[in-house]
Amino acid sequence: MKNKTTISTITVFAIASMLLVSGFNLPAASAESDPVVKKIKIAPVAAQEPIYKSQLRTIGYIYIFEACAGDDPIISPEIVVRSDSEIRSVNLATDLSPEACQVSSTIIKAASPDTIAGVIVAKDTLTKMANESGKKVGNIKIMISEKNYELQKTVKSPDSDAKTSKLVKLSEEIVDLRKQLKDARSEYYRVLFLIYG
Questions:
Q1: Alpha carbon distance 27, 39 (integer Å)
Q2: How far apart are CA 93 and CA 104, in angstroms?
């Protein structure tokens, strides 16, 4: 089994190497008018413990992709690769001519390989992503504050069965909002890291 994994890993790296060596500024197979990133292959990084269906675990994946320009050239193209666990930035080696493509790859961690995708971005796009993430964090904080206020009011009200069920419901909502806040903050800081290094 270990020998099979090693052979498949070597095969993936060999294919990636060939694509990387030959894949710079090739004409796009199907011309797109807008820039696009197409998935070529996603393979788990070798020498990791086996994944069991019942066990959600973040592992590294090799993400091989093809970035294609649209009608306009792209100078210093940057690809943002996202998964359910991580965001990576990949700067391509050369500029993209109109309707040309480059093949590249990166290693990214994910719990599910289906969540891995890439997009061509400019710094202003990253700034917009950071602003949207920041607003999301602010909105969740406001919602938590409102739920906490409602919880305090409910605690001070007279005892009843309705009060108990409302306290349980509000507590569950606050716990869920705190999880959302944690996720939103992580996303926000990952985007800031891409912008400022």
A1: 17
A2: 9
Which residue, chain included where needed, has tokens 């909105």?
139
Give me the CATH code for the 2-121 domain, please: 2.60.40
Q: Which of 101, 61, 54 is nearest to 83 (CA)?
A: 61
Partners of 119 in the β-ladder: 80
Dihedral pair phi/psi, residue 63, rounded to 5°: -110, 110
Instruction: Express each pLDDT in 13-31 by its tens digit.
Output: 444 444 444 444 444 444 4
DSSP run (H or E) holding 3: helix 2-22
Beta pairing class for 26-27 and 36-44:
unpaired
What does the domain layout of the chain look like in residue ranges? 2-121, 128-196
CB 88 within 8 A of CB 80: yes
Q: Give residue-wise pLDDT tens across range 41-81.
A: 787 876 665 555 555 678 899 999 999 988 888 877 889 99
**Tokens standing for residue 103:** 């093949």
CA distance 66 to 104: 6
Asked if the model's pLDDT at residue 146 lies above 90, the reply is yes
For residues 105 and 81, what is the distance between their CA atoms, to the nearest angstrom? 10
